[in-house]
């Protein structure tokens, strides 16, 4: 589906993640961006920051892709992937670091919200897409219509399974105190469970 993410680099980021991620995770990443960008525009986010936010949202689950299935937690692998991607475009290091932090911390409640604008907005976008944040006050029919263009496709189960599969192959990717660790522990406690993980 044709979408403009506010700049050539962000548009290229979309083309890249679309080529390596499961479709449900691509749609989720776009929905996270739609919410985060909506909130960012209301806060007066500048054009370059908006493009950086788009890249962060698009790459925030890139660590679940086979192409980025390294030894670190999927959040860190995705953050490293985004940094490598942006380095090919010569982006300034401080902005690349903000993108890295936004991705690496997006499953860290109480931390992401205090690490700056990009980490906070990505975290809010993720929470909103999984129903943990009430957007009823957003009062924006265009946002609702845009979100509806990208169906969920069972994202909770798809993402949970992707993270658990990595953790089963490499337990170091799912430390006990982390969100991946919670998903893995739930699977190990009930190996026959199908569908959305109770730890989601």
Walkthrough of the structure:
The chain is built from 9 helices and no strands. It is an all-alpha fold and 200 residues long. It has 2 domains: 8-153, Hypothetical protein af1432, CATH 1.10.3210; 154-200, no CATH class. Helix 2 crosses helix 6, helix 4 runs antiparallel to helix 5 and helix 8 (155-169) packs across helix 9. The radius of gyration is 16 Å and the shape is globular. 45% of the residues are buried. InterPro entries: HD/PDEase_dom, HD_domain.
Question: What is the compact description of this entry?
Answer:
Helix content is 60%, strand content 0%.
Give the name of the CATH architecture of the largest domain. Orthogonal Bundle
| Global Rg | 16 Å
Low-confidence stretches: none
Q: How is the biggest beta sheet arranged?
A: none
- Work out the helix count: 9
Please state the structural category.
mainly alpha
N-C termini distance: 28 Å
Q: Total domains, how many? A: 2
State the shape. globular
Task: Write the SSE topology.
Layout: H1 8-20, H2 23-42, H3 47-59, H4 74-87, H5 93-104, H6 117-129, H7 141-148, H8 155-169, H9 179-189
Helix pairs in contact: 1-3, 2-3, 2-6, 3-5, 3-6, 4-5, 5-6, 8-9
Key features of this structure:
single chain, 200 residues, mainly alpha, Hypothetical protein af1432, 2 domains, 60% helix, Phosphohydrolase, HD/PDEase_dom, HD_domain
């Amino acid at each position: 589906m044709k979408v403009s993410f506010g700049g050539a680099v962000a548009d290229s980021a979309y083309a890249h993640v679309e080529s390596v991620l499961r479709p449900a995770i691509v749609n989720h990443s776009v929905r996270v961006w739609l919410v985060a960008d909506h909130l960012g525009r209301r806060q007066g986010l500048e054009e370059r920051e908006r493009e950086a936010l788009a890249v962060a949202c698009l790459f925030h689950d890139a660590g679940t892709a086979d192409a980025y299935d390294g030894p670190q937690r999927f959040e860190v692998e995705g953050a490293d992937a985004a940094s490598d991607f942006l380095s090919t475009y010569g982006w300034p290091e401080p902005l690349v670091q903000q993108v890295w932090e936004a991705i690496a911390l997006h499953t860290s409640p109480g931390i992401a919200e205090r690490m700056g604008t990009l980490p906070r907005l990505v975290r809010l976008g993720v929470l909103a897409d999984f129903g943990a944040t009430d957007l009823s006050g957003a009062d924006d029919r265009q946002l609702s219509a845009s979100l509806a263009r990208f169906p969920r496709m069972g994202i909770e189960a798809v993402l949970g399974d992707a993270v658990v599969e990595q953790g089963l192959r490499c337990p170091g990717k799912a430390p006990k105190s982390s969100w991946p660790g919670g998903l893995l522990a739930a699977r190990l406690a009930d190996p026959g469970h199908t569908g959305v993980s109770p730890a989601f």
